[in-house]
Amino acid sequence: MSDQPYAARLETWSAEMAILDEICRSCGLVEEIKWRVPCFTHGGKNVAIVNGFSDACVLSFFKGVLLDDPMGLLEKPGPNTRSARIIRFTSTSRIEACRPEIIRLLKQAIENETKGLKVDFAKDRDMDRPSELTAIFERDPLFEAAFDQLTPGRQRGYLIHFTGAKQSATRTNRIQKARDRILVGKGLNDYP
């Protein structure tokens, strides 16, 4: 492990990440490396993470959906994201222009953690099962029981994966390929 700060070791977005790191630390957050990138915590709870991608440097709030965003900086990282919200940056000047609002959002996120606020995942947890899955479950009750034993997040991940296919044959193929993983309690993105 290098003694050099994380941002300094990057080829792209190092200046942007260094500023975001400084802002996060100035708010009293503790920097840890998790998932190979800087993760900022408060009282041991994940608050924000900074990462560089090909098109932008990103500040991500784990429970960003709970934040007030009057300036409209926060966006969903993907269509199926339920909790996290991100701000994309492509220049240090944009970060500096947004600095007061970034600090306000970080302080609100810290306050939310201190209060123990949680995202209500139950309100949109239930997803319809595709007819192909229902038909397979009718023939294979063991498979259905294993699916029902998965955590709600793992079930949702599979349902998003299955229903993302446009054709019925593709949905059926995806379900059949996932069967062995489901039977042993693995999620779609769990390591083998």
Protein described:
This protein has 192 residues and is α+β, with helices and mostly antiparallel strands. It folds into two domains: 6-115, Aspartate Aminotransferase, domain 1, CATH 3.90.1150; 125-183, no CATH class. The chain contains six helices and five strands; from the N terminus they run H-E-E-E-E-E-H-H-H-H-H. The protein has a five-stranded antiparallel sheet with strand order 1-2-3-4-5, covered by helices on one side. Helix 5 (152-163) packs antiparallel against helix 6. The two termini are 27 Å apart. The mean pLDDT is 91.
Amino-to-carboxy terminus distance: 27 Å
Helix content: 40-55%
> What's the count of strands?
5
* Most strands sheet: 5 strands, antiparallel
Mean pLDDT: 91
**CATH topology description of the largest domain:** Aspartate Aminotransferase, domain 1
Low-confidence stretches: none
Class inferred from helices and paired strands: alpha+beta
In short:
The protein has helices at residues 14-26, 92-115, 131-139, 141-149, 152-163, 168-183, and strands at residues 30-34, 37-42, 45-52, 57-61, 85-89.
SSE blueprint and pairings:
Layout: H1 14-26, E1 30-34, E2 37-42, E3 45-52, E4 57-61, E5 85-89, H2 92-115, H3 131-139, H4 141-149, H5 152-163, H6 168-183
Antiparallel strand pairs: 1-2, 2-3, 3-4, 4-5
